[in-house]
Amino acid sequence: MDETVFTNARIVLADRVVHGTLMVRDGVIGDIAAAAGTVPGEDLSGDYLLPGLVELHTDNLEGHSSPRPGVEWPAIPAMISHDALIAAAGITTVLDALRAGSFEPTRAAAPDPLRLAAALAEAKMRGLLRADHLIHLRCELPCPDTIEVAEAIARDPNLKLISVMDHTPGERQFVTIEKFRNYYLGRRILAADQLELFISERLELKDSHSAKNRAAIVALARRLGLTLASHDDATAMHVEEACAEGVTIAEFPTTGEAAAAAHRAGLKVLMGAPNLVRGRSHSGNISTAEVAANGHLDALSSDYVPGSLLAAAFALPGAVESIDLPRAIATVTRAPAAAVGLDDRGEIAIGKRADLVQVNADYGLPVVRRVWREGRRVL
Fold first, then answer.
1. pTM, entire model
2. pLDDT for 185-201, tens place per residue?
3. Are residues 222 and 272 in the same domain?
């Protein structure tokens, strides 16, 4: 029997923080005692002990796979590099977002999702990864190859979550074409003449593919029995459509109207941690703090900055008076885990997986000191 004891820790439970001792036995939590220093063990010096963070939507792997436009990095080294950053952020379970369909204007070619899925599987099999990696399949509805790619990845046993999204100019994230123009021109992503051609092409793709692709992706998720998420809902009608399709997670609603409708409908509302850390959306949509203050926030995602997940969880009680630290930590642990059926983790409780993070916050910012996955130290 393999046992490890952590003592003198501020243990963040589901509803409170206790200063005490935690015992891990054979990879699961065996006992919790609110008595600091009375049991011999590894002294955490009063640091916080959290459940391992759970990330449902990160694009970080793509950045390591294609670090510059036109550069394709070897897949397994990219996977290992991505994983190291994920673990250093305190994330022990991560759903890596892979694209079925892409029309990003800033890449010569989006990273090959099948190549990345294969690298993920091989790296897991060889024991090269610190975190537990699964797949979130992002299905870009206006693209001609979306269904073909989705059907290929559907055979992967690591697939855990499917989302439907539409980044057509004038839709959802950018609710008007003018807002889309202002964003892309303001950031100098495309020149004005290139942008108009891009908009025209994307509107044609939407007309040709979005409706039939959406129906096919929804049917695929139902057939596989997988969790389905909507993305960038902007109106109550968007939420109604999602509910009719069996969606259970609303990712990054862009307005208060959509967030409130999703909450009323029982969808789990997931918002961006970078939005909370920065104090606003990078594209001018509703702030995560406002969604939380309205009582509509369930979970956070690091999206494009892995380290933002822990930072946002510790910042949330200061941003929203009604949220204490245990409830804030739940938005990055228990809530996202439950949203995709990972009920064996996400909480420090007897019988749960010993996915744990030691965090020091003495100087006002949370710093990851050590990380354990199923009781084994990985950082």
1. 0.93
2. 656 666 777 777 777 77
3. yes
